[in-house]
Amino acid sequence: MFNEKVVVITGAAKGIGRQTAKQFKAAGAHVCIFDKLENDYFVGDLANREDIERFVSKVVEEFGCIDYIIHNALPLTVGLNNGSYDEFMHALQVGVAAPYYLTQQFVPYFNDGAAIVNVSSSRYAQSQANTESYAAAKGGISALTHAMAISLAGKVRVNAVAPGWINTTNDALSLADTEQIPVKRVGKPEDIANLILFLCSQQSAFINGETITADGGMNKQMIYHGEHGWDYQS
User: Fold this and answer.
1) In angstroms, how far is CA 28 from the centroid of its own chain?
2) pLDDT tens, 205-220?
3) Which of 107, 95, 89 is nearest to 152 (CA)?
4) Which one of 3, 25, 61, 71 is separated from 127 by 20 to 30 angstroms, measured CA to CA?
5) pLDDT digits (tens, 9 = 90+) for 153-183
6) Residues 41, 109, 134, 232: which is the catalytic one?
7) SS3 98
């Protein structure tokens, strides 16, 4: 299905991005990673316009075209109580401006049947205190998703996935961690990677402009003090 396809993945040195790269490679795709951490393709800063341009030039020079972009890089999380203006703006640069500019640069090089998958978060619609930069970036990329889907209509499908709690570091989990989620487990990177590959495939050819939440049903669960073991503490 993905043999010889060219895939761009940002933030793929670890976590969801790394698992997605692994699965695309196993399916025969050429994977072009952009990450600030060491990786086997390109090390750069998505907040730096020149790094984005150098990356695009490298991919185009080597392959001449692309099939998929996975915008997955993690923006900084700061909030009203602990975040500076520059930190907030950096989060928006990485989480919203970079996906916009990287996509714009690749527009002339998309093959037929191309797709973009933006990695948002269930936090685009829910929040904890002092996470404003992350929430804004994820809300922004969800909005960017449907906007780009319309602008690229007939050329590239654009969708987003919104993960809930994904255990990307193999941390030990308590019974409460798992039991609070309706599917009775915390998510794994492959849960999201599987969804990303589906949204790139022709099996999802009629899905466009959507943000699909994958959080084990957590966002559908009503939470009140005194129910299901929850105890509100002010």
Assistant:
1) 21
2) 999 999 999 999 888 8
3) 107
4) 71
5) 999 999 999 998 889 888 888 887 788 888 8
6) 134
7) helix
* CA 149 – CA 208 distance, rounded (Å): 6
At 97, which amino acid appears?
A: A
Q: Which of 22, 23, 103, 96 is nearest to 68 (CA)?
A: 103
Does the structure show a pLDDT above 80 at 49?
yes
> Is the model's pLDDT at 137 over the cut of 80?
yes
Taken as a whole, the chain contains a residue count of 234
- Supply 150's token pair: 């319309």
- Region at 214 (left for phi over 0; alpha for psi -120 to 50; beta for the rest): beta
User: Please, which residues have CB within 8 angstroms of residue 26's CB and are 6 or more apart in sequence?
Assistant: none
Q: Does 134 qualify as catalytic in the annotation?
A: yes
Tell me phi and psi for residue 228, to 5 degrees.
Answer: 55, 30
* Region 37-46 average pLDDT: 97
> What Rg value do the Cα atoms of the chain yield, rounded?
18
> Number of helices and strands (H, E) in the chain?
7, 7
C-beta atoms surrounding 97 within 10 Å: 18
The three-state secondary structure class of 71 is strand
Region 89-99: mean pLDDT is: 98
Tell me, what's the pLDDT at 213?
96
31-34: long-range contacts, CB 8 A cutoff, minimum separation 24? 31/7, 32/6, 32/7, 32/8, 32/58, 32/59, 32/62, 32/63, 32/66, 33/9, 34/8, 34/9, 34/10, 34/73, 34/102
